[in-house]
Amino acid sequence: LGSSRDSSTSPLGILSGVHNVSQIGFAASSSDLDIKSQFPYYGRTIPSSTNGDATAVVAYLQKYNITKLNVLFVTDAFGSAYQNALQDIAGAAGIETISHSFSFSSDGSNTNGDLEDINNINDNRERKRRRGSEIMLDDIGNPIEEEEESGDDEISSALRALTETQFRYFLAIVAEEHYDFVMDAASTAGLVGKDYVWIFTSGIDLRTFQRNATYTPGSVLANATKGVGILHVEPAKTTRRISPPSLVDRFKEPRLEAISNPPSSYDKFNDVWFKSVINSTVVEYLNSKQPSVTTSLNISSYSTHPNHHSYFIFDAVISLGLSMCMTEENFFTGQDVFKELTDEIKFEGATLNVDYDDVTGSRDINGAVYTLWNVLPSEDRNEDGMALFEDVAYDLVPTEHYKEGQWVEVENQAFVFFDGSTNRPPFLPPAEMNLNKIGDTYRAVGYGLLGVVCFMAIVFLVWTFCFRKTRVVRASKSYFLCIVTTGCVIMISTIIPIGMEEPVSQNWLDFSCNLRVWLFFMGLVLSLSALLTKTWAVTKVLNNPDKNTITVKKKDFFVSWLILFVPNFIMLLTWTLANPFKWERVFRAAVDVFDREIESFGQCKTDHAQVFWALILLIDISFLLYAVWQSYKVRNIQTEFEESRYIAISIASMLQALIMGIPIVIVVTGTPDALYFVLSAIIFVMCCAILLLIFVPKIIASRNDGIEQAKRERTEFLRKKAEAAKPESYDENHSAEDEDNEPVVTRSRDGAAMLVTNPQDPESESKFTATYTGGVMNGNATTLNVPEDSLNTTASANRSLCTADVERGEFVDEFTETNVEEGEVDGLRVVTNPAVSDMSYISLR
What pTM value is reported for the model? Predict the structure, then answer.
């Protein structure tokens, strides 16, 4: 039977073959032991490293899509065979493994084998356990310089080589006595932490590891051991957490719970074991059977829980006994026993279904169970709530079982990694990905354009409301102006979803991809339909020359909006429901040393996107072309405030922006910064072409109309004032000389001027009052040129000086003649006083 180590099993197996003696192992897993030419009569109750351990490891890596693995192994029979088997199976599965080895025993010497007695390692490990928790001092208080041991240096060299791979997952094929040295060197190399995962193999005995892995709190090893995994072949699927045995009273540990009902052979074995170790008679009997070279055991040396090797040793004993009993001859050889073992032996033992391979004699992997144990700091407390252990001790938690080709998680016992979470670290460092996101500067420009258009829209809406009763707004229809403005706001809002990208959630990104096309085309439809309504109205004059006035009604707008809305809505709705846009990252042909794509850009994609864009752009560009054609046809028709002219320019500008912008968009696709800027600029130009060309001319016209209206109101005011100042009756042909003592009122023929003089007082000032639509006075006293478009002119003439203060500026001129005789000037009858002609003057208001 045995042994527990590959290094000692191999020579023993060769000797057994030479002497025709059968051998059954329970722990050695080297696949070399399956070579029948060297080990003809060797069988074992565990699978080989090729069919068992390595297969389980590769299946675990495949489950979590881990394709890169660092392997650190000891160069003994166990480590070398395990590494070779793993490399072959992993390579066939497409998993890259990088391996480095060391030959190192616990006493720091180089060796080709392992220590049989692992209890001798404690003194050599003490320095590693305490390092980092406190400074070691010599007898006079000086710090002790730590020296690298030869074997430790080999481990450090191997780990430094593995560091260059940048892989984050490590598989350590080592013995239990190597653990402290490996993890101490890994900490020094920076290979321990939240980004790394360490898994040790069945070279580490669980109970021995748990007994020896007690570290000073705060030490390097206490920190490095957090979240370590141990992959081990087990007798059965157990879900029980293994806590450190209490040094106070180990017999108070409860017996193991049954894994099935009715109890399996594994459960029965545990029950018998528990009853035996608390029975002094049984222990005394066991002690009497120990070889004399072994120190006699006492009852305190036994645990209520069997070591996992105990199950496999038991089944090895039973298998060997059954094989011998089933031989037909009383005298049998190792060959006979091995033949019976491989051909006939199948039973339910302590490790459940025991079956051997017909050729190799190793345990069939389908009958074995592999468990991934999670090493976690113990949380055990005594009755007072204090920790049971002065040093850091560890629980062993089963997290997953591998059997019959599949890894299955243990319920509510997920693997906890170094950082205390169950979030699995990536097996490679994060790729330095260039996501080509939209820059802050470009985004600021886009939002700035959005703000400009929204500000203009608000200003124009407020202006429309404030001047809604003016002739300009009433002629343009306030609802028409509001519709145009609303359409532009909706259209410019497209800039917001265009700028969406990670870290926004995928659902919101998909939503924004579809929202952007809805906003743009619905806003375009709203604004364009209002413009087309006006254009179509003007064409009615072309088709009906007798009409001088065209009234645009709300139903006219609704009809034009419906004509544009229906095809756009059907296209957008069909595409959104049948083949919606989705946000995807498109990777470019750029890779890192791991052949990972490292450059991408976000894009809204859908199947047959070219078809969608071609159809919907064809619809809207066709409407724009039609609108331009209609505008061209009515170019010679004069409309109030030249509205049709500005609408035509606006529509043509929109068409030009689209036709010029589409090729640019195609070129810059794949460059998010440029694409975002181009799309924002196109939408901005279209909105400005609508708002500025529709509103600015109207604002100017409204101002001019206000000025004209003020002039008309002033003229009317003066006319009414002059009418109020007339005498109740007068003779239109009455002259200034008809009466001596009365003022004479003389009126011009057209009633536009009135002259009042006093003939009895020659020294009095002749007064001439005129109410008319005039302007700046030009010429001399005998010729008054009065422009028809002037208003509110006031002029005074005294001798040769004429001064006119007018609303549009100041005018000064001289009369060429000072004596103004009676006469008519430009429809005005001017009468002066001949007696004092040199003092006559005319005052015009």
Answer: 0.61
